[in-house]
Amino acid sequence: MKQLITILFIGLVSFAVNAQAKIEFKSDTIDYGTVEKGSDGVRVFEFTNTGDEPLIVSKVSSSCGCTIPKKPKNPIMPGKTGEIEVKYDTNRVNPIRKTITVISNADTPTVALKIKGLVVDSSKESVLEKKNKSIVQQ
Question: pTM of the entire structure?
Fold first, then answer.
């Protein structure tokens, strides 16, 4: 009887160890491309829980204050999809190169996502364009 209980206990423990949430993103990079200053800076990273336990995203953070990520509020059940919304401040005219860190209970607990692109202000003339013109053309 003791052996049977021991075998059952070991079987349950090994089953619990193998049960794991897994997070798989459609893409780990979002390319904004070239966007106009003041345009919509909201993009979405889509992911699926391919594991067999509920996925809990505990924290989502950005590499700077110009990018605001929003994590899912509820656990993502096995086989279901979720979203991490990212809002970049497009009032900053510069190239975009930011990292969003996702922390969860998945088998890979920390995942780095990236956003990239370029914010331009077409209402202002580029310094390079001015340099290419002669003094008479300016």
Answer: 0.75
